[in-house]
Each structure stands twice: as C-alpha cells, then as structure tokens.
Design a protein that fits this description.
The complex is a heterodimer.
Chain A: E1 6-9, H1 13-24, E2 31-35, H2 58-61, H3 66-71, E3 74-78, E4 81-85, E5 90-93, E6 98-100, E7 103-106, E8 110-112, E9 125-127, H4 131-140, E10 146-150, H5 154-165, E11 169-173, H6 186-198, E12 202-204, E13 209-214, E14 218-223, E15 228-230, E16 233-236, E17 240-242, H7 245-249, E18 254-255, E19 257-260, E20 271-273, E21 278-282, E22 287-289, H8 294-308, E23 320-325, E24 328-333, E25 341-345, E26 354-360, E27 363-370, H9 373-385, H10 391-396
Parallel strand pairs in A: 1-2, 1-7, 2-3, 7-20, 9-16, 10-11, 10-16, 11-12, 19-21
Antiparallel strand pairs in A: 4-5, 5-6, 8-17, 13-14, 14-15, 18-19, 21-22, 23-24, 24-27, 25-26, 26-27
Chain B: E1 3-7, E2 13-17, H1 24-30, E3 50-53, H2 58-61, H3 66-72, E4 82-84, E5 97-100
Parallel strand pairs in B: 1-5
Antiparallel strand pairs in B: 1-2, 3-4, 3-5
The chains are: A alpha/beta, B alpha+beta.
C-alpha cells in the first residue's frame, strides 16, 4: 500500500520525521506534508533558548534544508486542514480544496494554552510557541525593560534566562507553591528558584494572575490579592493544548491527545498520529501518556512512517527531555510519576551540577541530571533495561 | 564533489556528499543515512549521532572534545575514535572520510 499519496497533517518535528521516514521506509508514491506556518519547518526547542537570546537565526533552525525536500521528493504545502473524510479517504483544506490520500498521518501538535483573564488581548502580551511569537517578543524586548512571565514551567524559566541575557528585568509568576511543580521534585524546584534569583530574576510563587491592565498596551499585571506588578511586556507560558479537534471531528478516539498504540495507530488503524497531539498507551507506565518532547515526537514519527509502509517498528525508546537555562544543561531520563524515593548525587542547594534520581519500589524510574551528561546516559540505560541500582553508588559521585 | 562514507554495523556502505561548514550529523540526516538519528538537533544532548572515525582519519578529524566525552563516556560501544557527528564541522580536507556506525544509538 505504498502507492498513492501519503498525507501528513502538520509540518513540525513529528510531521517532517514522518515524511522523511516514509521515504526511508520505502513509500513509493507522493509524500505531502501540510503545515500552517509560512517558514520552512523549524526546530521549536531553541525558540525559548538560543533563538530568543539572539544566538541563532531562523535559517539555522530549519529541521532540514530546503534541498532535502526536493531531493527526497517530499512536498511541503502551506495550508490548514479543516476536515478529514475517512470514507472518501480525503481531507478538506480551509480554502475548500480537497486532497485524497492513501496513507494519513496526524502530526497536528499543539497550541499555547491561553490565559482567560481580563485585559489578555492588550498589546505587549505574548505566548511562545512559534517563531512569529518570538519575533514579536524580540521586537518588544528592549534592555532595561521589565518582562513579566506568567508560568514557572520550562518554557517560562528558559524564557526568563534568555531575557536576562538580553538585559531585561524579569519577574516570573507561578500559580503553584513552587516552579516546575508538575514535573520535578521540590529539591530541583528549589535549585532552579535559587539559580534564577542569583541571576537577578524575581520569582513569585503562589502568585495568581487576576487581570492584565493598561491603556494602548499592557502596563501592569494584577494579582489575585490586588497587587499590581508593572510590566513593559508579558509572556504567558502556562502549558500546551493539543490540537485534536480534527481527529475528534473525524470520530477518532481522543483522550487528552489522539489515542495511539505501540505502532502509532489511532483508533482507525489506517490513520497514524505522532507528537504533541498524541496520547500513547505506554506499557512501561501502564497508562496513556501524552509527551511534549521532540525526541518522543521523532520516535513516534519513525514508527508511524513504518506502520504506513506496512512494517512493524513499535515505539520503544524511553522518554527524555532537555532544558537549557544559563550555563545549565538539564537532561531528564524517564518520567518520574509515581516515585516513592529520591536519591540525590551532589548538593542542589550549593552546587551547579547534581543528579536527582527518582525510584519506585527500589527501581530507577527517572533522573533529572543538571550538568551531568554521564549520569544521564547511564540512567537512560539503567531505566531502559530495568537494571538494578545501588543507592550508595548513585549517591556517591558522577557515574563512571 | 567530495564524499564521506558511513559504514553500518553490519558492513553496509553509504556515501554522502560533503558540505563544508555543515555538521557531519546534518549530512547524515539530510541523506537519510540509517543509523544516525540526531534526535536533539545538534545540541550534544542526546548522543544519537555517535560515529567511530576510521583510524587513518583520526589525525585529520580530531578526537572528541570535553562535551562529547561526557556524552560518550557511558556508551558501551564507545571506542577511542568515537565522536558525536553533530560536533564535527566538515572541513575541505575531509574528502574520502570514512566513519563507522555503532550497532545502537543510545
């Protein structure tokens, strides 16, 4: 069934990898990736890091150069798919045109979660998901100006570090009791709060935003208690909403994300999905997991491509993530949900390198490694293979 | 045009045109060389572009730097001439370069 047109909806990390993977796995027919952004598909992780800090250009962000698509006969089409007609095996685009497919991959990604408070539409308030968002932020980010970041997750904290590098004053407002609450242990949260404070960032936790105030532009962020924080610009980083409407309207099973199995098949085995929009039923965790991670998007996409080509390449890789802030490279192996024990190597209250190991019933579940690539590589192997761990050895020093 | 040869774990050879200034990882993925993933896009964060430089090329290409070393140290397929291809900037003198690929990218 590798004749005819393979259609990939979405042209970001997952979409490009599905398209490339289809060619690599031997798809003989046409391959078309439809994306709604004007630029050549680009890498998103650097947007809040090097690209925001002005250390890389949009051209350098390209996932693949323009020639790649020509060379491998992959068509990139700018457009928005509004409907899937499964019975007729075709999609409808926003301009009314239709496109038939022999194979269909949904890589629709996600969009920034919006903050529903009054004044949110004032100018000077931004989200951070696309290069266009970052271009707008950079146009407003003058040295000495005060940026208020709503959300103390990875995007918010990376943005804080990048804006400090650009010479701005930065305040981070986090609704929870600590930054990174959803994803790390309290020890790691405290570490990042300390690092950002040392860099001159004001971190406010348990800070609920009630409204944005201003005139022709935003001037203040109003907190729940009535306190008003002056702001020249505001960046909202409060999470991601998966783009699942297209799949849901077509009758595919959606639970948070588009539900996929180990072969990246949706509830219609002729349609695959990958990336931020997909909820994968992972045997490792015995539940549906929707990962917002470039490596996972790539892994699922390779599987999705193989599946469309009639091959079996189950999704197997351990989820992992990374985050760059200042001189700190955080690498995370595995998901820590359900941990019952922490083992620390190094002292996060003092050092700039340490590893936080998450154990569950004595087995290694995940590891947050700050400036400890060796620990990260070791942890990846131990977790993937379910090897035994020696707590004293974990704690002692860097892996060797 | 100058070329690089990637030799897979089971001996299969794949040639790809070199492009000065690009990283060797980029060249591998642009040419869909199986066995080089480059998951992190070139940040030396993932270790999935591990290559082993052919002995006769080590002097020209150089050995791993400290950043690569940290990522490679724990790799069971690590060899003295192991490198992360994303950290290898192609030079004009590399025509005919030969690198081997490990059985698994971590």
């Amino acid at each position: 069934m590798t004749e005819g047109r393979a259609l990939v909806v979405g042209a970001s990390h997952a979409g490009v990898q599905v398209a490339a993977g289809l060619r690599q796995e031997g798809w003989a027919g046409e391959i078309v990736a439809v994306g709604d952004e004007p630029a050549l598909p680009y890498q998103r992780p650097p947007l809040s890091k090097a690209y925001l800090a002005g250390k890389s250009s949009l051209e350098e962000l390209a996932i693949r150069k323009a020639e790649f698509y020509d060379k491998h006969d992959i068509s990139l089409v700018q457009g928005t798919v509004t409907q899937i007609d499964r019975a007729a095996q075709q999609v409808v685009l926003s301009d009314g045109t239709t496109m038939a497919y022999a194979g269909l991959a949904l890589c629709t990604g996600g969009r920034a979660r919006s903050l529903s408070v009054s004044g949110i539409d004032l100018s000077g308030i931004f989200y951070l998901r696309t290069f266009a968002d970052v271009a707008s932020i950079r146009a407003w980010a003058a040295p000495g100006h005060h940026a208020v970041i709503v959300g103390g997750g990875y995007i918010g904290l990376e943005t804080a570090a990048s804006l400090r590098a650009l010479g701005l004053e930065v305040t981070v407002l986090e609704a929870a009791e600590r930054v990174l609450e959803r994803v790390t242990a309290p020890e790691v949260s405290s570490f990042y709060e300390r690092v950002h404070r040392d860099a001159g960032v004001v971190i406010r936790t348990a800070a609920l935003v009630k409204a944005m105030a201003g005139d022709d532009r935003v001037r203040e962020v109003v907190l729940d208690g009535g306190e008003r924080i002056p702001a020249d610009l505001v960046i909202v980083g409060v999470g991601l909403v998966p783009n699942t409407e297209l799949a849901a309207d077509a009758g595919l099973l959606v639970e948070d994300g588009i539900v996929i199995d180990d072969l990246a098949c949706t509830s219609d085995p002729r349609i695959v999905a990958a990336g931020d929009c997909a909820s994968h039923r992972m045997a490792r965790y015995d539940r549906l997991v929707r990962l917002e991670s470039v490596p996972s998007a790539g892994e699922q996409a390779k599987t999705a491509a193989a599946t469309l080509c009639g091959k079996e390449r189950p999704i197997a890789a351990l989820p992992w993530f990374w985050s760059d802030q200042y001189d700190l490279k955080l690498q995370i192996a595995g998901l820590n949900t359900g941990y019952d024990e922490l083992v620390l190597s190094g002292d996060p209250t003092r050092d700039r390198d340490f590893t936080c190991y998450y154990l569950q019933q004595g087995r290694l579940l995940a590891a947050d490694c700050v400036n400890r690539p060796r620990d990260f590589m070791k942890a990846k192997q131990v977790i993937s293979r379910g090897l035994d761990v020696d707590r004293a050895q974990l704690k002692a020093a860097r892996a060797s | 045009m100058s070329d690089v040869t990637f030799i897979s774990h089971d001996g299969e050879k794949r040639e790809a045109p070199l492009e000065e200034g690009a990283s060797l990882m980029q060249i591998a993925v642009d040419n869909m060389v199986p066995g080089v993933d480059g998951d992190c896009g070139g940040e030396a964060a993932c270790g999935t572009c591990h290559v082993i430089v052919d002995d006769q090329w080590v002097a020209e290409v150089g050995r791993s730097g400290p950043v690569e070393e940290e990522m490679l140290a724990m790799n069971p397929e690590r060899e003295p001439a192991s490198r992360l291809a994303c950290q290898m900037r192609v030079s004009e003198n590399w025509d005919g370069l030969v690198v081997r690929l490990p059985e698994f990218q971590m």
